[in-house]
Amino acid sequence: MAYGGALSIFKKLADSDSTNTGWQRDLSVAYIKLGVVAVSQGKLEEAAMAYDDALSIFKKLADSDPTNTGWQRDLEASHSRLGNVALAQGKLEEAAKAYGEARKIAKKLANKDHTNTLWQRDLAVSFEKLGDVTLAQGKLEETAKAYGEALLIRRKLAESDPTNAEWQRILAESYWKLADLEERQNNAGRAMGYWKQAFEVLSGMEKRGL
User: Fold this and answer.
1) Alpha-carbon torsion 5, 8, 9, 14, what sign?
2) Cα(7)–Cα(28) distance, rounded to whole angstroms?
3) Which of its termini does the chain have fewer beta carbons within 10 Å around, N or C?
4) What is the DSSP string of 29-68?
């Protein structure tokens, strides 16, 4: 496999100089690509192993320089990937733990700079993923809280730039998820309220040509 050959090269480079952060990161990216391929093939155990190897490297990099926000974000994404695989495997506790770690990092970054829309978006995604796993666990109160936190962030993003199609779309998705959650609990009125808000967002997008 091409990625397997690249991994061998990156591993030799990384092993030859553990202080070369560029080579260490290249190695972690190679592990991620192997994980992506494994996921596409349905080989979730292999994917988990590859993502875990990447996580170990990103953790060392992040620990070596806590001020490097790029490495912190890499670490956050690694936790999230492991959570995705665990959720797909039905390992809900593992998924919840991984998503929880991702949220901690996302929250630190978002709190560091409230004007950084990428970090705010990441935090919303981390809350949504926690909501997804608690929903699978049947912890509906926790799900509502997590989805609600994601909604608050996405609403602010959408209001800050009504012309940003992605932010409008993910805001509508947040309303959909909350509507579905309310329907599961037979709260028809509340569900209808969220469906209406989602429709209003989509209608606004259509009027603005988004």
Assistant:
1) positive
2) 9
3) N
4) HHHHHHHHHHHHTT-HHHHHHHHHHHHHHHHHHHHH-TT-
Residue type, 14: A
Type of residue numbered 182: E
Confidence of residue 19 (pLDDT cuts 50, 70, 90): confident
Q: Which two tokens stand for residue 141?
A: 């109160």
The two structure tokens encoding residue 52: 């875990």
Q: What is the pLDDT of residues 43-58, one digit of tens each?
A: 999 999 999 999 999 9
Residue given tokens 């990156």 in the structure block: 10
Reading the block at residue 85, the tokens are: 């695989």
Whether residue 132 is predicted with pLDDT greater than 60 in this model: the reply is yes
Q: Greatest CA span in the chain, whole angstroms?
A: 63
Tokens of 65: 């320089």
Rounded Cα gap, residues 94 and 47, in angstroms? 15
- Residues belonging to the chain: 210
Which distant-in-sequence residues (6+ apart) come within 8 Å of 13 by Cβ? 20, 23, 26, 27
CA 196-197-199 angle, to 5 degrees, is 65
Tell if the pTM clears 0.85, that is, is over it: yes
Residue type (1 letter), 108: K
Q: How many C-beta atoms lie closer than 10 Å to residue 143's C-beta? A: 22
What confidence score (pLDDT) does residue 12 get?
84
